[in-house]
Design brief:
single chain, lipopolysaccharide transport protein A fold, 17-stranded antiparallel β-sheet, about 45% strand, transmembrane helix, transmembrane, LipoPS_assembly_LptC-rel, LPS export ABC transporter periplasmic protein LptC, membrane
Length: about 230
């Protein structure tokens, strides 16, 4: 018997029809899948970035607010683990309760060392009771908020606008105790003379200034006003 015209079973015909039928293109589905994956990745990146930013802001606020000093600023930014602070203003207190204030053009704080501030263009004001306030300037400083102490460098000046004007290369200032120490050359400018030394120690509360090492004084010539000379 010939099998040429024998009909195939129905299940077999259905499978063959499915294989031979034209298939819809899979490209649009693949494109949509790729777009969904790309969008998901972007959302993950933005989400992680937002979380990191929020954490950084929280840590900065936590570190700054935990200090024993009052800190204010105009603007704050982040550079990795370092916080950049524009126009920081710090307020602290001396041993006797009198206030001191620090201002700077720029400050940098490392979140791993929250008590340390690197300051540029430091200006300080120390209240001295009934006397004139003591003013201090320094081109650069590293301030320790926990110790109330600063390492001053690149040119330092401390003065009271009336009695004295002390110029130094660098110094260590203890704001809590109102003392300043320097092992570098310093010059004290007075109305009558200039005093130079290789090292100096200032105790503001005791009104004491001590020079050591090759100390010498240069007296200014007294200016005689016209018509007041001896006849």
């Amino acid at each position: 018997m010939s099998t040429r015209n024998r009909e195939l079973p129905a299940p077999t015909r259905d499978r063959l029809a499915a294989l031979s039928a034209p298939r819809a293109s899979q490209i649009p589905m693949a494109v949509r899948h790729t777009q969904r994956v790309a969008k998901l990745r972007r959302n993950i990146v933005w989400g992680v970035g937002g979380i990191v930013t929020i954490c950084a802001v929280f840590l900065a606020y936590h570190f700054i607010s935990s200090l024993a000093i009052d800190l204010r600023f105009a603007h704050i930014g982040f550079q990795g683990a370092r916080i950049t602070i524009e126009q920081p203003r710090l307020v602290g207190y001396q041993k006797d309760g009198r206030q001191y204030e620090l201002k700077a053009r720029m400050g940098v704080q490392d979140i791993h060392k929250p008590d340390i501030f690197e300051l540029e263009g430091l200006e300080a004001r120390l209240e001295m009771g009934q006397g004139l306030p003591v003013l201090l300037t320094s081109a650069a400083a590293v301030y320790d908020g926990k110790q109330d102490r600063a390492e001053l460098s690149n040119g330092v000046r401390i003065f009271d606008e009336k009695n004295y004007d002390l110029r130094l290369e660098s110094a260590t200032m203890d704001f809590k105790a109102s003392t300043l120490v320097s092992q570098r050359p310093a010059t004290l400018k007075l109305d009558c003379c200039d005093v130079d030394g290789k090292a100096v120690e200032l105790a503001q509360a005791e009104s004491r200034l001590t020079f050591t090492g090759a100390v010498h004084s240069t007296f200014h010539e007294q200016k005689t006003e016209p018509g007041t000379g001896s006849k």
